[in-house]
Design brief:
about 300 residues, alpha/beta, Purple Acid Phosphatase, chain A, domain 2, six-stranded mixed beta sheet, 7 helices, 12 strands, disordered N terminus
């Protein structure tokens, strides 16, 4: 090839790259999801094990999960809390595995993530890569809101912290026998949530929420103030679903047109558990791996302008 032809080939290649970079993103093929994301709960690693919970097998399971996710085209992956079971050093084992994900990754704070020494509790969110304990992000016209269900709790702050004292008083007002290993969403966070839902409604966005703790159906694992959360969500037709972990057996319910889905815990049994959620205009489809079952959740048709 002479110099002139080489120059023409280089110029053609440069033009093709430049044009491609400015073209709009391709629309999904008919029948294809708008996008997919990974959802996994309760990796809950520590170096111990028990009859049911195979804590020390979680690195192997998480590696298998990450390898499978990396074969897929995912918008992001979210871990729904209890990344570790205990001991701050446990993060050193599972965090590097999760970091191998090709897709953007997000964490939700769980109760066991704070099963560390009092002087390490404040360091947990940062160790998990979080700038804020509750936050939001958007993707293709959908808003994803991440809640902190440990906001009001007996374990997320040092024993002598005023917030622990306030949570103790809060817990005493609850029904006798309410588990101390659950938590609640505080007033400031609820006000923030209401504001974000209003923004989503105004922007005509659909919303999916992530939290470690369930709020529906009625269950011993539910947030202390689950009724306050479900009542608020019911006010906004833009809310499509609420995904959580914590109840390792998994669960599902629908209330006020909102799907409440509990992902099964990875840590339980020798079998793995995680899922991929396919997002369509009219439904959400959960594709389960391991002991996580598939599920289809229909969404209402968009309101006509």
């Amino acid at each position: 090839m002479n110099k002139t032809l080489k120059h023409i080939a280089v110029l053609a290649g440069w033009i093709a790259i430049t044009v491609a970079a400015h073209l709009p993103a391709a629309e999904p093929k008919p029948g294809s999801p708008l996008f997919r994301f990974g959802a996994v709960a309760d990796c809950q690693y520590c170096s111990k094990t028990s009859l049911l919970r195979k804590y020390n097998l979680s690195p192997k399971k998480l590696t298998e999960c990450v390898e499978q996710y990396n074969k897929l085209d995912l918008a992001f992956v979210v871990h729904l809390g209890d990344f570790i079971d205990r001991d701050f050093e446990s993060f050193n084992v599972v965090s590097p595995i999760f970091a191998k994900l090709k897709a953007p990754r997000y964490h939700v704070l769980g109760n066991h993530d704070f099963s560390v020494a009092d002087d390490k509790k404040e360091l947990v969110p940062k160790r998990m890569g979080l700038k804020s304990r509750y936050y939001e992000f958007t993707h293709k016209g959908w808003r994803f809101i991440v809640l902190d269900g440990n906001d009001v709790s007996l374990y997320a702050y040092p024993k002598d912290d005023p917030r622990t004292k306030a949570a103790t008083a809060f817990h005493r007002r609850l029904k006798a026998g309410t588990p101390t290993w659950n938590g609640g969403v505080g007033g400031k966070q609820l006000a923030w949530l209401k504001g974000r839902l209003a923004v989503a409604a105004k922007a005509n966005e659909k919303v999916i929420l992530f939290c470690h703790f369930p709020v529906h159906p009625e269950n011993i694992h539910n947030l202390w103030n689950h009724e306050a959360v479900t009542s608020l969500l019911a006010e906004y037709s833009c809310v499509a679903a609420y995904l959580n972990g914590h109840n390792h057996a998994g669960n599902y319910g629908e209330k006020s047109g909102i799907h409440y889905l509990t992902i099964k815990g990875m840590v339980d049994t020798l079998k793995n558990s995680y899922g991929v959620v396919e997002v369509y205009e009219n439904r959400l489809v959960l594709k389960g791996f391991g002991r996580q079952e598939d599920r289809e959740m229909k969404l209402p048709a968009p309101a006509k302008p």
